[in-house]
Amino acid sequence: xxxxxxxxxxxxxxxxxxxxxxxxxxxxxxxxxxxxxxxxxxxxxxxxxxxxxxxxxxxxxxxxxxxxxxxxxxxxxxxxxxxxxxxxxx
Length: 90
Known about the structure:
The chain has helices at residues 4-19, 31-41, 43-48, 54-62, 72-89; strands at 28-29, 70-71. By secondary structure, the chain is mostly helical. A two-stranded antiparallel sheet has the order 1-2. The relative contact order is 0.12.
């Protein structure tokens, strides 16, 4: 069995690819795929937000190069940033 950190890294990679490419480029997540990811993986986050534009705002945060898609590097960077923010709030 893989060590815990290695497994966590594999899980993050697999999570990205389980949502990317559903509607096109398998190396990118578009807005519809991001919405599905947020609904299925961060449902508490979405439920806590009463703002209907939360997916748009999250897309802006993730899409650092402003190409309308999220690549793995942008995704991973944001997940790590969110994890740090959650850790700091504990």
